[in-house]
Design goal:
Length: 251
């Protein structure tokens, strides 16, 4: 994952709410653009990935035109609330803290957290096995929070602005391991950079619900997104997108 800061296809979009009804011709989808395979910028400069395809499928069901905007992860919720985009589809976990700032749709997939480390090491993922190790994670993520809440007293935690930078330090030997989303780690392990690394232990957290975020009070939009999500699951659109990225269901 690379630390891109582009804004793509920044076409005008409007949201109008009258008497609780949703009315819009266009929506802007906000995402990070640096979290493969969920959101990334391809060789042609387009924002692609599982999150983006799901969001665009929802837009199609809602019969609205959608453009994509990217934002650095650390500022992505403030960007949503500053109306730089209208919905946030960036593999964001539902947390009580985030629910104070935004509203969430129903989950569109369930995440797990799992450690990865070099194949050549017998890294144990309990407290005794991790004592004194240097473990990386992306900042302001469930993985980073889990490490701080559960391992702060035994490991040296290194937090990064992007997942890619955590992987770079792991590959260069500056980290003993990385804790991250299982499906993102799975994608990296398939790459040339990740070929000498593997999952270690079982997932440490396996009920992380991922949803689309909207601004507080955008209830009509949130309800429309929930209805559209039910439709794409029922008609097979979701499965078609899922199968493009994963040989197993993540729903």
């Amino acid at each position: 994952m690379m630390n891109y800061k582009k804004i793509l296809l920044a076409a005008a979009a409007t949201l109008a709410f009258g008497s609780g009804a949703f009315a819009a011709d266009k929506l802007k989808i906000g995402t990070e653009g640096a979290y493969p395979p969920f959101n990334l910028i391809d060789a042609s400069g387009q924002v692609v990935g599982f999150d983006v395809e799901i969001a665009k499928a929802l837009c199609a069901k809602m019969k609205v035109e959608c453009d994509v905007v990217t934002s650095d992860w650390d500022g992505i919720i403030p960007a949503l609330n500053a109306k730089k985009f209208d919905i946030l589809a960036a593999s964001m976990s539902i947390t009580e803290e985030r629910k104070q700032a935004v509203d969430f749709t129903d989950p569109y997939y369930t995440n797990k957290l799992q450690f990865i480390a070099p194949k050549s090491t017998a890294l144990k993922t309990d407290k005794a096995g991790l004592k004194g190790k240097v473990i990386g994670a992306q900042r302001a993520t469930i993985a980073g929070t889990w490490l701080e809440d559960n391992m702060d007293d035994v490991v040296d935690i290194k937090l990064y602005d992007t997942q890619e930078n955590a992987y770079l330090d792991l590959a260069s030997g500056r980290l003993d391991g990385v804790l991250g989303d299982k499906f993102v780690n799975w994608e990296w392990l398939k790459s040339d950079a990740g070929k000498d690394f593997e999952f270690k232990g079982e997932p440490v957290f396996d009920n992380d619900k991922i949803a689309i975020a909207v601004r507080k009070g955008d209830d009509a939009l949130r309800e429309k997104l929930n209805a559209a999500l039910k439709e794409i699951v029922a008609d097979g659109t979701y499965k078609k997108i899922n199968d493009k990225y994963f040989p197993f269901s993540i729903y």
